[in-house]
Design brief:
With 289 residues, this protein is an alpha+beta fold. The chain is built from four helices and 14 strands.
């Protein structure tokens, strides 16, 4: 014990002092710079850049430093994102930090986002640069607030969980989406009534010769059940309503009202309420075959 105490009171080796003290000084300097950084000015710059790049107006009530297990970052409160001609999306808390991603080696910074609020939650890596993208999960998000929520005169609403791995290329997104929606409705263009659903789940693949391949999309609701597969092509002139459809839909209809409404638009059903429909033509004016 006496020997241990003697060693503890001895001065540190010169090598440790020569190397360790400058490193400690740099770390402390960076730490105090990190604490004293003008985060309010950074919040204004971030909001301005996001609005210019995405046409989404962003308001940040408060922003400051945050230190987590995976490294330092930022934490913002009272974040409101308002897409063009859509309802605002609100988050009580948004945390940002550099993501552990190989995209940094390609010169494309990647930021890990962890957000929670009344509009749902988002967690995943956002890549910025020449090919922006997102690899992560959305939970409890309003379908109507997403870009897919309003296409070609149709509309989808409800609450959805999404697993996304998408890259935004010049001709559109590329990657996959796994969707699991509930308690919503689907309005097909030129249809007089929206179709309610209890669950809507499926696998979507974006990119390639088509805008999106519908590998599987299943709807279950009080009026009908449907299984959908096929594709939606690239729209001419980037007008979503002109995107060509090629969808095969298997239907199981319940109730005289739903049966009459579908038959009125040309859907043929068996006596038991089953039928198969192919949707073609543009998304804004589909044709039933």
């Amino acid at each position: 014990m006496a020997d241990l105490l003697t060693r503890a009171t001895e001065p540190l080796p010169r090598g440790v002092v020569a190397i360790g003290m400058p490193i400690a000084g740099v770390i402390l300097t960076l730490f105090f710079i990190y604490l004293g950084f003008p985060y309010e000015r950074l919040a204004m710059q971030l909001a301005t850049q996001l609005e210019a790049a995405t046409d989404v107006r962003v308001e940040i009530a408060d922003i400051g430093p945050h230190v987590g297990l995976l490294g330092p970052g930022l934490e913002a409160h009272g974040v409101v994102a308002t897409p063009l001609a859509r309802a605002p999306v609100r988050f009580d808390r948004v945390r940002l930090r550099p993501a552990w991603s190989i995209s940094w080696f390609r010169g494309e910074p990647s930021v890990y986002v962890d957000a929670e609020g009344a509009s749902g939650s988002i967690s995943g890596a956002v890549t910025v640069g020449g090919q922006p993208g997102f690899d992560g999960v959305l939970r409890g998000v309003d379908l109507g607030a997403l870009p897919l929520g309003d296409l070609g005169g149709g509309h989808i609403d409800g609450t959805v969980d999404v697993e996304a791995n998408l890259v935004l290329e010049p001709d559109g997104p590329y990657g996959t989406l796994l969707v699991d929606a509930r308690a919503g409705s689907v309005l097909i263009p030129n249809s007089p009534v929206a179709i309610p659903f209890e669950t809507l789940s499926g696998n979507l693949r974006f990119g390639g010769e088509k805008y999106v391949f519908v590998d599987r999309l299943e709807l279950a609701g009080p009026m009908l059940d449907a299984k959908i597969e096929g594709s939606i092509g690239h729209a001419r002139g980037r007008n979503p309503s002109q995107a060509p459809l090629d969808l095969l839909i298997q239907l199981e209809v319940r109730g005289a009202g739903a049966r009459s409404a579908l038959q009125a638009v040309g859907v043929r059903l068996s006596r038991s309420g089953t039928g198969t429909v192919r949707l073609t033509g543009p998304l804004g004016n589909p044709r039933i075959r």
